[in-house]
């Protein structure tokens, strides 16, 4: 391939098809957030399957809320590298939910919501994977002008934190029966696997910090994670009566969520202040 062709491919652009896929997904995420946050006790009739207690519905909705922000930004972003690291996480999340669905078909409601759910998760992992593969060569690997480089110790720390979340999610997914005995509130094997899929998001996103230090490559993703974390905090406040305080996982989970808000919030503020300073002093 000639140099001009390589330059054209590595233009950091977002293809129209990528934007249209994002725009197509957003309404389904909005509908899910409304149903799960607004009607958590009626998920059996309004959503794809009955979810109890409400905290499980809230946690799934929190992930979808972050997804709305992410895909809105995909539809409007100027550069591919601003959103590229979110795609592997979406593939893993959607694939996990597809597998969970196939393993627990008897738990789902045979209604329109289930048909939509099954159709989306039978196609989304593959569509998103194709989009990521087609778009991947367009990231030139360069930082924005100006940009901020995230310090190595911060990146390693977040990657380790994400790995812990991913391992926890993997245990819940692979051994959902065990999760019913240790999780912070009552879960079924299906909801345990769904929550495990949610926990995988942070792990997959944060793993990319090990080889990419550009703040511009994580800014949107951290905003989405902060939005999800804020929703989880509000969910824990609203659903505190459903927490099982005799289980060690309850204070651990609350502590991790609190730490997540503090760490992501502080790092976002730190990077944004330095980015603003760089813009002020830009020649």
Structure write-up:
With 283 residues, the chain is an all-alpha fold. It has one domain (3-280). 71% of the residues lie in helices and 0% in strands. Helix 5 runs antiparallel to helix 9 (189-207). The longest helix is centred in the last third of the chain and has 32 residues, at 249-280. The protein is globular and about 55 Å long. Mean pLDDT is 93; it is low at 1-7.
Distance between the termini: 35 Å
- Quaternary organization: single chain
**Helicity range:** over 70%
Q: What is the number of helices?
A: 11
Structural class: mainly alpha
Radius of gyration over C-alpha positions, nearest whole angstrom: 19 Å
Low-confidence stretches: 1-7
Number of domains: 1
Sheet with the most strands? none
The geometry reads as globular
Series of secondary-structure elements, N-terminal to C-terminal: HHHHHHHHHHH
Mean pLDDT: 93
Number of strands: 0
Strand content: under 5%
Short descriptors:
283 residues; 11 helices; globular
């Amino acid at each position: 391939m000639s140099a001009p062709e390589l330059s054209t491919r590595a233009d950091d652009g977002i293809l129209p098809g990528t934007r249209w896929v994002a725009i197509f997904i957003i309404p389904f995420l909005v509908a899910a957030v409304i149903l799960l946050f607004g009607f958590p006790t009626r998920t059996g009739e309004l959503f794809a399957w009955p979810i109890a207690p409400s905290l499980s519905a809230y946690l799934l909705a929190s992930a979808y809320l972050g997804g709305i922000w992410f895909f809105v930004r995909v539809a409007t972003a100027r550069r591919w590298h601003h959103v590229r690291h979110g795609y592997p996480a979406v593939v893993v999340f959607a694939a996990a939910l597809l597998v969970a669905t196939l393993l627990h078909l008897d738990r789902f409601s045979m209604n329109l919501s289930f048909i939509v759910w099954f159709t989306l998760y039978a196609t989304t992992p593959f569509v998103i994977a194709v989009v990521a593969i087609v778009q991947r060569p367009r990231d030139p690997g360069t930082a924005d002008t100006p940009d901020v480089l995230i310090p190595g110790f911060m990146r390693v720390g977040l990657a380790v934190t994400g790995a812990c979340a991913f391992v926890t999610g993997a245990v819940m997914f692979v051994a959902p029966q065990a999760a019913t005995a240790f999780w912070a509130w009552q879960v079924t094997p299906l909801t345990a696997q769904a929550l495990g899929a949610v926990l995988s998001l942070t792990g997959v996103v944060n793993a990319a910090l090990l080889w990419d230090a550009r703040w511009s490559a994580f800014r949107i993703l951290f905003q989405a994670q902060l939005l999800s974390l804020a929703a989880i905090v509000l969910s824990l406040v609203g659903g505190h009566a459903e927490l099982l305080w005799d289980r060690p996982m309850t204070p651990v989970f609350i502590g991790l969520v609190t730490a997540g808000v503090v760490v992501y919030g502080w790092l976002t503020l730190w990077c944004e202040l330095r980015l603003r300073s760089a813009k002020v002093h830009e020649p």
